[in-house]
Specification:
The complex is a heterodimer of chains A (about 180) and B (about 100). Chain A has about 180 residues and is an all-alpha fold. Helices cover about 75% and strands about 0% of the residues of chain A. Chain A has 8 helices and no strands. Chain A is flat and about 85 Å long. In chain A, about 25% of the residues are buried. Chain B contains 4 helices and no strands. In chain B, helix 2 runs antiparallel to helix 3. Chain B is elongated and about 50 Å long. Classes of the chains: A mainly alpha (about 180), B mainly alpha (about 100).
């Protein structure tokens, strides 16, 4: 079996296992740790499939930005006196072993890839340059639509995230109430 | 032609998608449902990249970037909704929240 095939199956196993752990955890913070490992494993798969640009995006945008949003919300939903105790329990040492081992596997794979990157047989890379040329040529309209989608998402999140207001009764409603009494 | 067989890549994408779908169907906590949806988006992205690497075209990666944009917009609105729902109902249980009347 060739090197990249071995690495592919190892990363696949890590991705499937981490995903399985994600959907079976009881604690949202633990599930999030495994989800990040799963995303990193998929990033390694992207690299092995000859898409280094997509692998970079996966790490930066998915495992970076989107997961930070999740962490932010999970932490915001748990306010109160018990928070410190709870966080200590969430992030206790034993919890790091599972994701740590999986991350170690991925890290070793990355080191192997870096060592052999010159002579990888059979992997043909679609470079970021080719992606960029296609993206701003035939797919220009799609880029515009994506930017509009992000704008709509931004405005929607801002609108939904506003503080709750208790509606004051209008003068007419007050008058009607007084008349009824 | 890539060294990695396309069937295995697509099989893995299907497996991950099914796991995400299982998560959406089984879990009743809205945060877990959102996470499972992220898993499903990711699986779709993997399928696109696999196809793109099989035919050595950049289109697979472009579709992945569009999926990424969609996931980012979805998660921003979804998490804002979660915060608002938690503020109003003090629960994240979907069975309670499904009574969307009044």
């Amino acid at each position: 079996m060739t090197l990249e095939l071995t690495l592919f199956y190892m990363a696949s196993a890590v991705a499937v296992f981490a995903t399985l752990m994600t959907i079976t955890r009881h604690n949202a913070a633990h599930a999030l740790l495994y989800l990040i490992v799963s995303l990193l494993a998929v990033a390694v798969l992207f690299y092995l499939l000859g898409a280094p640009f997509a692998a970079g995006l996966e790490v930066i945008v998915y495992a970076g930005a989107i997961m930070v949003l999740f962490v932010f919300v999970i932490m915001m939903l748990n306010q109160g006196n018990k928070t410190v105790q709870q966080e200590r329990q969430w992030l206790r040492l034993g919890m790091w072993i599972g994701p740590g081992i999986l991350c170690l596997v991925l890290f070793l794979e990355m080191l192997t890839l870096l060592g052999y990157s010159g002579e990888m047989a059979g992997v043909e890379v679609v470079s970021a340059k080719q992606v960029g040329i296609r993206l701003f040529g035939p797919y220009l309209l799609a880029v515009e639509l994506a930017s509009m989608l992000l704008m709509v998402g931004l405005v929607g999140a801002y609108h939904l995230g506003r503080p709750l207001r208790v509606k004051e009764p209008t003068k007419e409603q007050v008058r009607e109430l007084e008349d009824a009494q | 032609m890539n060294g990695i067989p396309i069937e295995h890549g697509l099989l893995l994408a299907t497996l991950l998608f099914c796991l995400g779908l299982l998560g959406v169907l089984v879990r009743r906590n809205i945060i877990f449902v959102l996470m499972s949806m992220e898993i499903m988006f990711n699986a779709v992205g993997l399928a696109f990249i696999t196809g793109g690497s099989r035919w050595l075209q950049a289109d697979g990666q472009i579709m992945f970037m569009l999926v990424l944009t969609l996931a980012a917009a979805e998660v921003a609105v979804g998490l804002a909704l979660v915060l608002q729902l938690y503020k109003r109902f003090k629960t994240l249980d979907l069975d309670v929240l499904s009574k969307l009347n009044g």
